[in-house]
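[Meeting: bench + compute handoff]

Bench side (C.D.) handed over the final construct sequence. Compute side (W.E.) agreed to return the predicted structure before the next meeting so the bench team could plan truncations. Sequence as handed over:
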Amino acid sequence: MLEIYSKGVTVASNADVPLNTVALIKGTSTVPLGASSIQLTKCGIYKVTVSGSVIGSAAGVVTLQMEKNGVAEPAAITTITAADATSLNAIGFTTLVQVPSNNNLNCPCATSTTISFRNTGIAATYNTIDVVVTRV
């Protein structure tokens, strides 16, 4: 299990949201990877819960999209329409991620899976962004 978060980070359009503070880590199936990614190291199903608040850089659409191994996950997205550059908006989603087995008994997961979170809308300030990943 891993809980990781950031507070008060400004993120450009089409840029990864940094996750810079580890609140809780238990076990080795989920580990931080670099400044903005999480590595899922064991085969299985993972529950990913994202919550937070965001302020758009101007009026427009703010979208937070989870990517798995660099590919956007269609069921892992949240979008809000910012009215201006001062309004705080709630964001969040919950999704499941599968790290498949390759049927090799000595190393059932040939490679680990990496997830990251991309701000695909207008530039925004993430007042808070909290990610909890649990292997289920």
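W.E. noted at the follow-up: The longest strand covers residues 44-56. C.D. will use this when planning the next construct.
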